[in-house]
């Protein structure tokens, strides 16, 4: 039956003919662009319904390595309540961070890039192009004023949004210079005649792990540093070849970069005969200090432990091959810690409010990530929350403890969703070990377990044009 249906579908597609088929594809793309434009408008209207009570409760982005935060849209856009982004994200089936970006892009376009906003809703510019422009103008350094953003808007709208990333960067740089925004930066030299925008950065995409166990990195460094790095990689790649490596030049250069991070471990091993002792017998320091959490199935056969061919790596939530693990642990002085197996079927409890390490590890291994719908933050970096709040006065008052420190009452929540659960109308409960049901302030329900998120019986949205009451 399935084969006949598929054959019928293919036959129907072929019956359209090439011209009609292309017309259908174009119509589908137009409908997709129109839906994306409408979603932007609805996201902006959702933000209008949720102004923050104060600037301290406004949504923002945390800047890695810094104490300050960036707003979700540029100067002149309205602030948005911090927690409203979570409900929008769950309805769309995306993370809270993605929902925050959607709202920020919508407000940036509507308030600071109105020409581009109009072109999106007229169908002349696809929403994804406009959002790419908004992303740049929001996070420009230094920040673009409303007048500067209007200049970018006029230039981009003049070419109907058809501008590449490099052209957009040059346009923003020209705008910063035109409006003398760089002069507000104390690091800029107003007499050098050049725009001071420091492009240096090193970004490691550790959340995007390839199945081969690799990650992508990109960097912008000083010319002298780049040339020195190129020379160092070439030298170390040649050293690895001299030591007998038969890998490609690219692979040896990549390995050499790792050796640089581990303080020249390949050369150390060569000089000291693959031992952990120096020439005078002193113990060498551990070179590799990267911590990986690998979970591999194993069976006992007599006195021998037999490992399965695959396992799971917590970092990146990716499949792990046992050969990869052997390679990582065997090519340098690596400290390996083997922890006892934790039986997740055995419940654990502790008196008092504090969560012992053994219970924390149990929750981390069971939940794997933050248990909020569609959140993918690794559990090892999350808080461990009492699902039912712990009553600190229960013992003194002679009442039974409603929220014990028990694995059946604990869950991994990232800091944002922990605060969301504590300070908003979101509620959740554990219906089985590691299975959670969430209810949003407007009555939407979701089930979250280690396989993902499922929406449960979305409520009736009510008559059109009447917003749901805020709680």
From TrEMBL:
Sequence ranges of Pro residues compositional bias: 458-471
TM regions (residue ranges): none
Region of interest called Disordered, as start-end residue ranges on this chain: 450-471
InterPro entries for this protein: DUF222, HNH_nuc
Domain HNH nuclease: 358-419
Superkingdom, taxonomy of origin: Bacteria
Protein name: HNH nuclease domain-containing protein
UniProt source species: Nocardioides furvisabuli
């Amino acid at each position: 039956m399935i084969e006949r249906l598929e054959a019928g579908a293919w036959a129907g597609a072929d019956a359209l003919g090439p011209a009609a088929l292309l017309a259908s594809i174009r119509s589908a793309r137009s409908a997709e662009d129109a839906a994306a434009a409408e979603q932007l408008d609805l996201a902006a209207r959702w933000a209008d319904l949720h102004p923050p009570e104060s600037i301290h409760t406004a949504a923002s982005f945390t800047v890695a390595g810094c104490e300050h935060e960036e707003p979700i849209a540029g100067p002149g856009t309205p602030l948005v309540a911090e927690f409203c982004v979570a409900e929008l994200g769950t309805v769309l089936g995306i993370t809270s961070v993605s929902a925050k970006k959607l709202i920020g892009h919508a407000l940036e376009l509507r308030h600071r890039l109105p020409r581009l906003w109009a072109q999106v809703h007229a169908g002349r510019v696809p929403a994804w192009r406009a959002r790419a422009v908004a992303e740049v103008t929001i996070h420009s350094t230094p920040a673009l004023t409303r007048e500067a953003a209007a200049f970018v808007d006029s230039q981009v709208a003049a070419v109907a949004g058809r501008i590449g990333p490099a052209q957009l960067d040059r346009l923003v740089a020209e705008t910063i210079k035109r409006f003398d925004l760089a002069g507000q930066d104390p690091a800029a030299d107003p007499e050098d005649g050049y725009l001071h925008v420091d492009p240096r950065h090193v970004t490691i995409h550790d959340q995007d792990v390839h199945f081969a166990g690799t990650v992508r990195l990109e960097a912008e460094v000083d010319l002298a540093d780049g040339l020195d790095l190129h020379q160092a990689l070439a030298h170390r790649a040649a050293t690895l070849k001299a030591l007998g490596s038969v890998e490609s030049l690219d692979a040896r250069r990549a390995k050499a970069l790792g050796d640089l991070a581990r303080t020249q471990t390949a050369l150390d091993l060569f000089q000291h005969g693959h031992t952990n002792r120096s020439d005078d017998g002193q113990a060498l320091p551990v070179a590799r200090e990267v911590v990986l959490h690998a979970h591999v199935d194993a069976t006992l056969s007599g006195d021998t432990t037999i490992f399965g061919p695959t396992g799971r790596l917590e970092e990146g939530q990716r499949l792990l091959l046992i050969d990869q693990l052997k390679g990582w642990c065997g090519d340098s002085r690596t400290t390996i810690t083997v922890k006892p197996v934790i039986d997740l079927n055995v419940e654990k409890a502790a008196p008092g409010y504090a969560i012992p390490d053994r219970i924390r590890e149990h929750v981390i291994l069971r939940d794997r990530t933050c248990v909020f719908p569609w959140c993918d933050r690794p559990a090892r970096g999350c808080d461990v929350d009492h699902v039912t709040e712990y009553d600190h006065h229960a013992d003194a008052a002679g009442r039974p403890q409603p929220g014990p420190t028990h694995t059946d009452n604990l869950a991994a929540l990232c800091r944002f969703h922990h605060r969301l659960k504590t300070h908003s109308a979101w509620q959740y409960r554990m219906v089985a070990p590691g299975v959670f049901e969430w209810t949003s302030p407007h009555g939407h329900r979701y089930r979250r377990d280690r396989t993902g998120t499922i929406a449960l019986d979305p409520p009736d949205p009510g008559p059109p044009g009447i917003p749901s009451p805020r709680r």
